[in-house]
Amino acid sequence: MQDIINKLFDDLLGEGALWLMIWRQKAWYIVGFALFLVVMAVIVFARDALAKRTRLLSVVRYGFLLTAFVYVGLVLKAQPTTTNLVTPINSVAVEHQFPLGLFLMEPFLFLTFLFIGLSVLLWGRGVFCGWMCPYGAMVELLSGIVRTIRGTLPSLLAQKLHGRLLYVRYVVFFVIIGVSFYSFMLSEYMTEVEPFKTLVLRFNRQWYFVAYFVFLTVGSVVFYRSFCQYLCPLGAGISLPLFLRWLPLIKLKRYEFCSTCKICYKDCMAGAITTNGVIDPRSCLYCLDCQVNYWDNRRCPALIAQRMKEEKEKKGGGSAPPLRPPPQGDQSP
Fold first, then answer.
1. Contact 143, 224 (CB under 8 A)
2. Which is nearest to 241 in space by CA: 177, 176, 170?
3. Strand partners, 279
4. Using an 8 Å Cβ cutoff, are 169 and 235 in contact?
5. Closest listed residue to residue 59, CA positions, set 144, 136, 122
6. For the chain (length 333 residues), average pLDDT per consecutive 10?
7. 43-57: string of b/e by CB count within 10 Å (b at 16+)?
8. Dist CA 182 CA 281 (whole Å)
9. pTM for this one?
10. Three-state DSSP class for 148?
């Protein structure tokens, strides 16, 4: 343990603390990025208030997605990749040390993974994958444009096939990890399954990388976020803790009635809600559509029944109790 602590201090203070020079040089960009993370946290904590105001939620969501795509992805080039997970896993397993110094040399990725680690434990993978990932933000914006033009998007794949394909990304992730112990360079090539590098390099790559990028992006618009749901090894890696049933610590709100109602199940573009109303945090992209339904007494059957009862009591001259949602049930998968 002492050796590990000493190595961490060496990474922090050694070699003239080169990382400090890098942070000073990028100070204003880091401040802007830190503000981006703070705003994301505020949005999550204010999700109930936003869900009650659908127009405001739409403005906030698409404004934030545009910022993630343009500022974080194209300007800062702060797009995390599976390599950022492979490197520490390989280093800890082989060299028995965490490459903290290497992460500190990339301040935006360092801050991103600090935020990812916290947000996955608290809210699930959807905060990053659904809001912050530059590539995911771009696909979400394109999907929104198509929905505006066409009014809808093609539905997800058949539920049975969808459920099976969800595990492909984990296979891809573990294959990349396994190969890294044989050849780190080969695993680096394999991470090209992600189109992220092509995005941050603004298509300044060989034609086949660009063609692959276009293919994946079009496919992810036609079949909503299909790359993110079925193939992305980064998404698989950061969602691994969510196989623990008690995570995330802060769950999206549900009613007991949700176990039989199918409205959110049918509405969920990501297919993250099961037929019995449970939200799977490993698939949820935190779009908050289900939370909009949760507070909508014109759409949610639980609230509609309560509203109709109150209106009936008012017409009968009685005093109706204040509207109170039915008790919430456990939505853990």
1. yes
2. 170
3. 273
4. yes
5. 144
6. 50 64 92 97 96 95 97 96 93 85 90 96 96 97 88 65 90 96 93 95 94 96 92 96 95 87 89 90 95 90 82 65 50 45
7. bbeebeebbeeeeeb
8. 32
9. 0.88
10. helix
